[in-house]
Amino acid sequence: MARLLILGGGIAGQTAALHAKKRLGGSHEVAVVTPNSLWNWIPSNIWVGVGLMKPEQVTFPLAPVYRKTGILHYQAKAISIHPEGSAGQPKPFVTIEHTAPEKKGRQEIVTYDYLINSTGPKLNFDATPGLGPLHHSQSVCTYDHAAHAATALDEAVARMQRGEKQTLVIGTGHGTCTCQGAAFEYLFNVEFELRRRKVRDQANLIWISNEQELGDFGIGGMHIKRGGYITHSRVFTESLYTERGVKWITRAHVKEVGKDTILYETLDGEEKTVSFDFAMLLPPFAGVGLKAFDRQGADITGSIFAKNGFMLVDGNYEPKPYDQWLPADWPSTYQNPKYKNIFAVGIAFAPPHAISKPMTSPNGTPIFPAPPRTGMPSGVMARQAAFNITDMMEGRSEVPTRQASLAKMGAACIASAGSSFLKGTAVAMTMYPIVPDFQTYPETGRMLRYTTGEIGLAGHWIKHLLHFGFIYKAKANPFWRLVPE
Amino acid sequence: MTFAAKGKPAMIEPSKSERRPYEQSFYPPVPTPFTKRMRTNLLWQFFRFVVLNIKMLRMVRKH
């Protein structure tokens, strides 16, 4: 009996674990190492962050799901990977450290035959002094951060109700952040809530981000057909900001967050400040800090992981300028080139380069979004990796045969812009491919037929359906496989 | 540079007072009242709900 070990129980890890166990049944083991006892549908954290949902509505306990499905569960964090085993252990293994209260701090090793690294990111608040819930700004990256943000927002609303003007700054807290979409959703949900609570006229809303232009979202923006024109997403995004009375600051690297002031550097190299009473700024992501060692105990972390801590897979990591980037640079099987039984999916894999054009200020500060790889693409690559590994475990194939390159994959994305069953709206976007392919689609980099966007109540209904649908699926309830990634 | 050196900047005034020529909000297209109404018109949005679901399923089937 062989064992597939999965590091991380988020969207990618849970998708991989459920698909792998369904295919393998009792013939092989599937084990998950995750430090959290709860599963979190992260896209709905924005609703926790404005007080419309409680953390219990976006989470559920993982242990009963693993018991039901027969998946081994270690509530622990991975410390190091030993892909060649060690002097005393011939099989590859991972050293873990338990996080459950009854075993907290205890270390043990878990052997594996195949490994999927889907740890997600380290929320790197330390990259910017003063950033994060422990300092001066809020976050919606986790459900408890979001609940904290909701409390701070309530306090700001109370001040507005007393007649005080408040400045709310929302966006990205560093020049290399990704997930602009989540901050965008939070911005417009806050704006909608302020209107609902009848204090909008007391609020000055400001967006700050590392995008070169609004509507970039880390994917270089996208073109859609609308009103007889082929138009860039910048136009529609600026339109929405204008309509909702939101000012925007782009091309900004937040250098420091003070008690009531944000210091940022622009792409022009200037230093500026903006004052705030409430700020929600997303942190940049980094790898979780896993180490790797060979059989002799020598540190081989640098041969498995990129410098940013994300795992190297089958992409082309040769440094090259923007105009030489190719769709073929992007990984398709997510298999580590050195250790063929190790895969990395979701945020955990190292992208070969950004999608948005890299920009640097005259001071040498990089100010451009890192590529997003969450949500639908994350689930698709996890499923394909699970299918490839189960094929290899059961002898149907010796090499991965299924592919999930972001340069050949489409995505559907729903960005909430206000939550209400009758008055809410959301931006519904589809794009194909995610990584622009200017060889195949020379004008815009994407197929216009499959690249669309619109805002309306229908998008909000879909966003709500996705909330319930994906939580239902992650619980492995009957017919869960009918819910697509 | 430190915050102390810079001093606290003046608060940016609410957006309506800034909507004037040469400000950033002067240039983007803004929706007409009809367009805004259609965004929450139940009949139209139910139709769009069906269309959007078809679009997304078509995208899912491409994987």
Account of the 3D structure:
- The complex is a heterodimer of chains A (485) and B (63).
- Chain A is of the alpha/beta class and 485 residues long.
- Helix content of chain A is 23%, strand content 24%.
- In chain A, the strands form 7 sheets. In chain A, strands 1, 2, 5, 6, 7, 8, 20 and 21 form an 8-stranded mixed beta sheet that branches. In chain A, strands 14-11-10-18 form a 4-stranded parallel beta sheet, covered by helices on one side. A 3-stranded antiparallel beta sheet of chain A has the order 15-16-17, with no helix packed on it.
- The mean pLDDT of chain A is 96.
- Chain B is an all-alpha fold and 63 residues long.
- Chain B is 49% helix and 0% strand.
- The longest helix of chain B is centred in the C-terminal third of the chain and has 20 residues, at 42-61.
Report the biggest beta sheet of chain B as strand number plus sense, adding barrel if it closes.
Answer: none
Helix-and-strand structural type of chain B: mainly alpha
Distance between the termini of chain B: 50 Å
Question: Biggest chain pair contact, residues each?
Answer: A-B, 52 and 41 residues
Structural classification of chain A = alpha/beta
